């Protein structure tokens, strides 16, 4: 089967399975690059793809600066495509199965208190000086991300109807397309309520979405990325990247450091697998220290 037709058939199958548009775009980018690599090297049929083609493509990605996490994501995308070819009986074995996942750096950077204060003060000064909507919006996005740990796709899709000011909760649609209700603190609820009043006064016609662009239309992932790219340039932090995901990590970090149980953290972070949560707890949590202080055998010895 010609590779270019197999690639399109695979994308059509993902759409038929109701895969999210974000994942479709990821397949188009990552899998599309592999398909281009194969065709460039005169591998035009799926049946001709071998282990070495997959490995060599990934090695070239690595030479271009791709980190272990990106390489592993590409491995999974290529495996999914070739697994589909096995299901369709185009090939009998998936050559990408032999490609081993790379070990990822377990270090996860988070914002310090001082860095958080710097970012909030930056927007607070502009907001107070110029009564600037964009500054207030970006300030509130940081406050919301820090107060909930929600993902970037969730914050740009957040609607005013998703916020329950009475019961102090917000509803988000997570990775699994499941609607989850999360508690919010009294402080965040008051901040959002004040922001809501400002938006009504500023726009007159309030958008359905909590965070909008300069023309009062819904933000996109690209516009959100540009917000944090601009902020990162202004802050010039050396040891941490300014991104929505870093705010999510910071939220999780503070929960783990507070001594919150892994089960509670899992529910707030909405990790489908608790092993993901435990990875963060093992990095940051004080549960192990507390358990050791409580049950260490030396406690019962008179020495």
Explain what the structure shows.
The chain is mainly α and 303 residues long. It folds into two domains: 3-98, Tyrosine recombinase, N-terminal domain (DNA polymerase, domain 1); 113-288, hpI Integrase, Chain A (Orthogonal Bundle), CATH 1.10.443. The protein has 13 helices and three strands. The chain has helices spanning 3-16, 21-40, 51-63, 68-87, 113-130, 133-148, 152-156, 186-203, 221-235, 244-258, 262-269, 274-284, 287-295, and strands at residues 163-164, 169-173, 179-183. Helix 11 crosses helix 12 (274-284). The termini are far apart. The mean pLDDT is 87.
Strand arrangement, largest sheet?
1-2-3
Work out the radius of gyration.
Answer: 23 Å
Q: Estimate the strand proportion.
A: under 5%
Count of all domains:
2
Sheet with the most strands? 3 strands, antiparallel
Strand tally is 3
What class would the helix/strand composition place it in? mainly alpha
CATH topology assignment of the largest domain:
hpI Integrase, Chain A
Low-pLDDT stretches:
none
GO molecular function, one term: DNA binding
InterPro entries: CB, DNA_brk_join_enz, Integrase-like_cat_sf, Integrase_catalytic, Integrase_recombinase_N, Integrase_SAM-like_N, Tyrosine_recombinase_XerCD
Keywords: DNA integration, DNA recombination, DNA-binding
GO biological process, one term: DNA integration
């Amino acid at each position: 089967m010609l590779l270019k037709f197999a690639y399109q058939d695979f994308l059509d199958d993902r759409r038929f399975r109701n895969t999210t548009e974000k994942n479709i775009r990821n397949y188009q980018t990552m899998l599309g690059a592999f398909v281009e690599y194969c065709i460039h090297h005169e591998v035009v049929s799926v049946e001709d793809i071998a282990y070495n083609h997959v490995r060599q493509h990934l090695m070239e990605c690595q030479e271009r600066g791709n980190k272990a996490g990106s390489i592993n994501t590409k491995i999974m995308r290529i495996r999914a495509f070739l697994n589909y070819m096995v299901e369709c009986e185009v090939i009998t074995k998936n050559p990408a199965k032999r490609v081993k996942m790379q070990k990822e750096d377990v270090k996860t950077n988070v914002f310090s208190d001082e860095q958080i204060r710097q970012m909030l003060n930056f927007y607070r000064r502009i907001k107070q000086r110029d009564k600037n909507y964009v500054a207030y919006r970006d300030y509130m996005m940081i406050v919301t991300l820090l107060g909930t740990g929600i993902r970037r796709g969730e914050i740009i899709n957040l609607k005013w109807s998703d916020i329950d000011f009475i019961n102090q909760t917000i509803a988000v649609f997570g990775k699994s397309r499941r609607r989850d209700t999360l508690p919010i603190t009294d402080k965040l609820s008051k901040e959002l309520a004040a922001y809501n009043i400002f938006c009504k006064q500023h726009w007159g016609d309030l958008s359905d979405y909590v965070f909008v662009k300069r023309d009062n239309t819904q933000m996109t992932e690209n516009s959100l990325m540009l917000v944090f790219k601009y902020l990162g340039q202004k802050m010039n932090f050396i040891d941490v990247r300014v991104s929505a995901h870093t705010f999510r990590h910071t939220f999780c970090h503070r929960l783990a450091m507070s001594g919150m149980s892994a089960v509670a953290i899992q529910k707030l972070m909405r990790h489908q697998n608790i092993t993901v949560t435990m990875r963060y707890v093992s990095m940051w949590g004080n549960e192990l220290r507390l358990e050791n202080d409580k049950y260490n055998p030396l406690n019962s010895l008179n020495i």
